[in-house]
């Protein structure tokens, strides 16, 4: 039984989620946390930081050739960001579903961006788009000792593992 639990825990994946400065300024931190938490995902790291523009540029390095890259890096570094790591089965892909499409005009109602944002340049939240990005972004924003590993009492009810 214990062995099953260990195997299950080892399979759990992690993703990097950030409430961007617009989400923080608009008082949406708890709303965003709540959507991941109520789903059944587990918060294993969180901090409030004001990233430098250089750091923001590192975070968005894959977009460095886009015309909006400079403005985007400037915006991410313009104020506090809530950086988080969430853990759970399918959290990378399903986290993106909870977040909704990049452009809030195209995000479905019921998603975070669909319900809470209007324009692409102020879409309030970031989420890693794949396993490699998740690993890189977690390593960029967090030191290993800033993340916790624990079994929550709710897990047997979320995953049905005894
Ligand atoms: N962005 C923008 N203009 C665009 C496209 C994207 O300002 O035309 C911003 C937007 O804030 C988006 C971020 O750049 O969240 C990163 O873009 P990406 O395509 O990686 O979208 P995401 O993964 O955030 O949905």
UniProtKB/TrEMBL annotation:
<feature type="binding site">
    <location>
        <position position="96"/>
    </location>
    <ligand>
        <name>ATP</name>
    </ligand>
</feature>
<dbReference type="GO" id="GO:0005524">
    <property type="term" value="F:ATP binding"/>
</dbReference>
<feature type="binding site">
    <location>
        <position position="113"/>
    </location>
    <ligand>
        <name>ATP</name>
    </ligand>
</feature>
<comment type="subunit">
    <text>Homohexamer.</text>
</comment>
<keyword id="KW-0808">Transferase</keyword>
<protein>
    <recommendedName>
        <fullName>Nucleoside diphosphate kinase</fullName>
        <ecNumber>2.7.4.6</ecNumber>
    </recommendedName>
</protein>
<feature type="binding site">
    <location>
        <position position="20"/>
    </location>
    <ligand>
        <name>ATP</name>
    </ligand>
</feature>
<dbReference type="GO" id="GO:0004550">
    <property type="term" value="F:nucleoside diphosphate kinase activity"/>
</dbReference>
<dbReference type="GO" id="GO:0005758">
    <property type="term" value="C:mitochondrial intermembrane space"/>
</dbReference>
<dbReference type="GO" id="GO:0006241">
    <property type="term" value="P:CTP biosynthetic process"/>
</dbReference>
<dbReference type="GO" id="GO:0009543">
    <property type="term" value="C:chloroplast thylakoid lumen"/>
</dbReference>
<feature type="binding site">
    <location>
        <position position="123"/>
    </location>
    <ligand>
        <name>ATP</name>
    </ligand>
</feature>
<keyword id="KW-0479">Metal-binding</keyword>
<keyword id="KW-0460">Magnesium</keyword>
<keyword id="KW-0547">Nucleotide-binding</keyword>
<comment type="similarity">
    <text>Belongs to the NDK family.</text>
</comment>
<keyword id="KW-0546">Nucleotide metabolism</keyword>
<feature type="binding site">
    <location>
        <position position="102"/>
    </location>
    <ligand>
        <name>ATP</name>
    </ligand>
</feature>
<feature type="active site" description="Pros-phosphohistidine intermediate">
    <location>
        <position position="126"/>
    </location>
</feature>
<keyword id="KW-0067">ATP-binding</keyword>
<dbReference type="GO" id="GO:0006228">
    <property type="term" value="P:UTP biosynthetic process"/>
</dbReference>
<comment type="function">
    <text>Major role in the synthesis of nucleoside triphosphates other than ATP. The ATP gamma phosphate is transferred to the NDP beta phosphate via a ping-pong mechanism, using a phosphorylated active-site intermediate. Shows the highest specificity towards GDP.</text>
</comment>
<feature type="domain" description="Nucleoside diphosphate kinase-like">
    <location>
        <begin position="12"/>
        <end position="149"/>
    </location>
</feature>
<feature type="binding site">
    <location>
        <position position="68"/>
    </location>
    <ligand>
        <name>ATP</name>
    </ligand>
</feature>
<dbReference type="GO" id="GO:0006183">
    <property type="term" value="P:GTP biosynthetic process"/>
</dbReference>
<keyword id="KW-0418">Kinase</keyword>
<dbReference type="GO" id="GO:0046872">
    <property type="term" value="F:metal ion binding"/>
</dbReference>
